[in-house]
Amino acid sequence: MKKLLIFSLVVASLACSKNKRDETLVMWYDSPATEWVEALPLGNGRLGAMVFGGTESELIQLNEETLWAGGPVDPNPNPEAVKYLQPVRKALFDNNYALAEELCKKMQGYYTESYAPLGDLAISQKFKGEISDYRRELDLNTAVASTTFSAGNTNFSREIFVSEPDQVIVIKFKADQKEALNFDAVVGSQLKSSLNIVGNNTLVIDGKAPAHADPDYLGDTPEPIVYKDDEGMRFRMTCRIINKDGTVSADQAGLHLQNATEAVLVLSAATSFNGFDKHPYREGRNEKAVADNFLNKASAKEYKKLKKEHIEDYRKYFTRVDFDPNNAKTAEIPTKSLSKRLDDYLAGKDDPALERLYFQFNRYLLISSSRPGGIANNLQGIWNKDLRPPWSANYTTNINLPMNYWPAEVSNLAEMHEPMLKQIKNMSKTGAATARNFYNMNGWCLHHNSDIWAQTNPVGNHGTCAPVCANWMVGGAWVSQHLYEHYRFGGDTEYLKNFAYPIMKGAGEFLAEWLIEDNQGRLITAPSTSPENFFLDSDNNRRQVAVAATCDMVLIWDLFTNLIEASEILGIDEEFRRMLIEKRSRLYPLQVGSRGQLQEWLVDFKEAEPHHRHMSHMIGLHPGRQISPLTTPDLAKACRKTIELRGDDGTGWALSWRINLWARLLEGDRAYTLFRNLLRVTDNNVLSYGPGGGSYRNLLCAHPPFQIDGNFGGLAGVCEMLLQSHMEEIHLLPALPSVWKIGSIKGLRARGGFEVNMKWADNQLERAEIFSSLGKECTIRTNIPVTIKDVKYVTKEHISDGKTYYLTTFSSQKGNRYLVTPKTNRNKSS
Prior knowledge:
This protein is of the alpha+beta class. The chain contains 17 helices and 37 strands. Strands 1-6-7-8-9-18-15-12-11 form a 9-stranded antiparallel β-sheet. The longest helix is centred in the middle third of the chain and has 22 residues, at 418-439. It is globular and about 85 Å long. The protein starts with a helix and ends with a strand.
């Protein structure tokens, strides 16, 4: 018991020391951003800001997560669609792929709506003398960005953060000489809006989003942005200057501060969004009252209090995990700016501190863009400057939405998963109408795209979209995986029973009905696409629609398996469970193709694009659990061949997916190679993205253009390299790359309610602590068992009559597998 208590005290002491600034977690630059993708992202889950860090002219681009075009979806946008299912199936069974594609287009509905930009805050500052000693930075320790510089004999600073407790954006301006601070601040919006002045220090913008915005990929359309008098989401944006000295005035040209040394600008915003099924104009909430309330309450607080509460709120999430590859925390910190460090890294120089920074930056992004009670991360998180953003900045459900939340549980940010889980529930409601109206089936379904209004139909404006990007009926299975994973990590049976299971069951009911028999009694899907990928038929024509794409089969296997387990855990639905077990046993089996690869379609078609970005047929390896080198070595070998054939290039998110796949194959060095590739920029060092993908200089990932899923997929990939638990074991350092010879990781979560700390040296595990929140036993797997010097198992406080600790009885089972069994020691006075 003493040993345990000492360990607990050490952990507490380490946690306290984290309040000291960690310079390895500071992103800094010696020049302002010159384009949007170089600006620094800030957010509180709801409000987003991109900070350029200019001197004479500063631009802060603004977003509010619920500001979207459109309104609730039409439940039956294509009443004719249901007529075409059987004709499509007949065409496929006749191998008439061209006809099947044309008929699929007749089963399409509307496109999704677009995420809209809120506006801009432009600041013009007046100086005497030349600018020198410039620095802009984002401190991941505090989620505070700052810009500092000198002009003449005066030092100037701006400090900016987005507060979750107070729901405002806060900027502090300061000069170290009296009366040297002078600036003008203007707020504006691309959306239809009007400007009003309140008193001498407050500007208010009232406006509304379009009733509809066409996707950007449609190009020039007759009316791409549509406004209607009684349609569209309303919004209010308001900002106020609180001056310590000097004078403030306001007019139609903006807010004006003169002859001051210090001032704080507070900005608030809100929309009329009142739920995915509520009309934002007629049934919307009072956005003016909400925005004004946030502004007035925050304005009444001292700046120090606003900042302190912001940092405390942020750090309670951020400090849970600490990654230290090659002792990056204690190594000499590079004195170069992040841009120059990236140049060196991309030229082949090792920089473990940069890798540590990137890992934690991605956790920072998740905290900053997805908070409980809010809206799920879209393609760009919450940051967007365009009225018609790339791919509408919507929820692309065939990879991007799931990838956004791959790291949520394992990187100890389970609370940030909640907005996606809520989005799934919303989509299950609209998806029930889609299943009924498009296919005359029970349950609910989801296709390629969704939005804040929980769109679920095949997109395409009744026939303008390629089926390979629209007619994919198994999206509900993939997103439902997140419902069950949240349970597998946390173990909350009430959540499973009352929230997750009913939604999963609805997705299962649809897919059980969607399956049909082939001529050998095996269950297949038809029509079927492998998201966004084409194959060549026997006449060498590019085709999209087939039957039983591997993606379909592994997702249905995954959903049925999760439902079978969940129903057993809850002790319910025995008859439904038996039906799923029977249907799972008859699913068309996975096939190995002529090149030794995992086949992507039922037939071993030749790929039209051999290096395609999507890896949809690999879902059974990651993020699923149907394939593993430990249990299905032949299929794992086929997966390995598949990834090799696809190559190590691709868009940012495609590289991220490949990192996770190599990690699941337990090949850390291959995973690490792609991890480094993820941070590429162009060869001529333009502040942009690399060929086919990479990282902008603010470490935001490129498709191109910017898509945040590459960041979150990269974070998930590193976690998979260090810890895996999908196979009912806690696998410690399963794919540790040889370059990370020494290091540590603290706070990763494993399925079953466990939290794991590890330390390694000479590429071998040296120490591990396994914490249990549920008091469950666990099985530990290590690659080299003889190196374990100290493995400790501890439970957190979870019994109401006192503190209970479970100490280890640790015994070898089979070579490198260990069973850790809890042994109760109660001590109420501990």
